[in-house]
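User
Please review the sequence:
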Amino acid sequence: MSDTRRRSMLGHIAIFASAFFIYLSAVAIRWSESYVEIHPSFFLFSRYLLGFLTVAAVLLVERRRPEPRRLPLIMGRTITNVLAVFFLYKAVTVTTVAEANILNMTHPLFIALLSWIFFKNQRDLVTIVFVMVAWVGVFLILAPGKMEINLNNLWGLASGFSAAFAIMLLRQARQHDDSETILYYMFGIGTLIIFILFPDKIHIPNKTEFYYLFLCAGFGVAAQFLLTYGFRYVTAVEGSIISSTRILMAALLGPVIAYEEMLGIYGWIGTILIFTANAFLAVRKAAY
């Protein structure tokens, strides 16, 4: 096997593992509910703090100082990413892990809609038709079976909406700064923002709290580094499609890992529509 092919294979594995670890990060919150009561902001704070310490250690070993060229872009990325992850974690506490993850993965749909609204050269009729069909899937997740919207699922949808802006800003930031610099400031500034917003929710954890906080944060930070590594060796289309497998993971593994009921027929139809649309959008974008 050639070195290029080996790296490509490792890249694919890294992105798939990243999707799985993001899912496990949310599952850790569900596991904790039987033993401790932890606010989503504390999980978020732990994830950002561990991420900051990890990136700082990497830069220290490399003897490199993070010098941002476009700090406003990184600030925008930080704020939107904090919102996206907080909304995801909040959704896990009030809905199911499956619904929260599936709705979080609607961000490609929001990106397509925003691009269609703000950029005339990206107004593609076929794309918008696929997006509209996918929104039928979103509705089936929001209102499974009874056709009555569960308002708690709006947390998951808000996560997807925030993530769309976070990804768009990340793409802009990467044109000027490397991944480690972006992560250093994102995690560092994000940690301060969360502490300022939720000072009464953050405290010295006991052993049980620390275990679940570290579990959630560890999976989340590992996912971030695996994703960064993976995208170095695979195409954007491959990476986007593999990342979207988290939708299927959440639907399939809910009963096994998160101890949740299996999605109903409407939920499965919605899941497949969203996944198919995400894969189509990734391929369509590469064609332009």
